[in-house]
Amino acid sequence: MVFKVIRYKKVTSTNDVCQNLASEGAAHGTVVVSEYQEFGRGQRGNTWESEKSKNLTFSILTRPTFLSVVEQFYLSKITALSVTDWISAYIEKNRVKIKWPNDIYVDDKKIAGILIENSFSTQYINTSIIGIGININQDEFSDELPNPTSLKVENGNEIDLELCLAEILECFKGRFAMLEQGQNYDIDKDYLNRIYRKDKYFTYLSGTTKFEAKIVDVEPTGELVLQTKSGEVKRFAFKEIGFVI
Ligand code: BTN
């Protein structure tokens, strides 16, 4: 995978710019990075707030046409793993987790978010825009954010954003190569090992029902597999389940 990085001072959303470039035929590996996003987007229709020039907000255009629609969750897995691989070079590995499906946590705080937007041609993926926001040098956050952190908050050091981007892209390249080579078993294993709150009982909320359960697995399609104390196994798609903190 060869990256071509395109830099902007301000965009609406790097995912949108990347999407436009994709429709104009931009190559696999095109990266859009911006110092500021006016309308940064998060999952579940949320916004993504990021202080200007302090953090990384970027999107990678990929064309994983070998991947079928039912395998698309692998893009979430390899992206989340790339970010955790990279952060683990700066913060003790066992503190860096993936909160299913693809939020990146340090202990109990969110340091990075991922928004993947795919397009399809018949049953295969055509383009996948991999949007990544990582809090790097920001040390003050709005009270509205539930539990944010940054690399600087966690390890005290400011880091050069260009260096960070180059390092993260190398991690992504390695994980994407695993996917191309069909190393799904290893990807599954690494992803599951990194899952936040795995194998520990917590209270979950599905609709209006609260129940105690532990995460035991994640299906290849991305569904979360929970087991209750009585041994009952329940599967949930994203949006169907929340933690009760
Ligand atoms: C989330 O945690 O809800 C996902 C956040 C994803 C944010 C990134 S920043 C770069 C890219 N452009 C966007 O508008 N969103 C993603």
Automatic annotation (TrEMBL):
EC number(s) stated in the UniProt entry for this protein: 6.3.4.15
SUPFAM superfamilies, per the entry: Class II aaRS and biotin synthetases
Keywords attached to this entry: Ligase
GO molecular function: biotin--[biotin carboxyl-carrier protein] ligase activity
Highest taxon above the source species: Bacteria
Pfam families: BPL_LplA_LipB
GO cellular component: cytoplasm
Cleavable signal peptide: none
NCBIfam families: birA_ligase
The protein's name: Biotin--[acetyl-CoA-carboxylase] ligase
Provenance organism: Tenuifilum thalassicum
Species lineage: Bacteria, Pseudomonadati, Bacteroidota, Bacteroidia, Bacteroidales
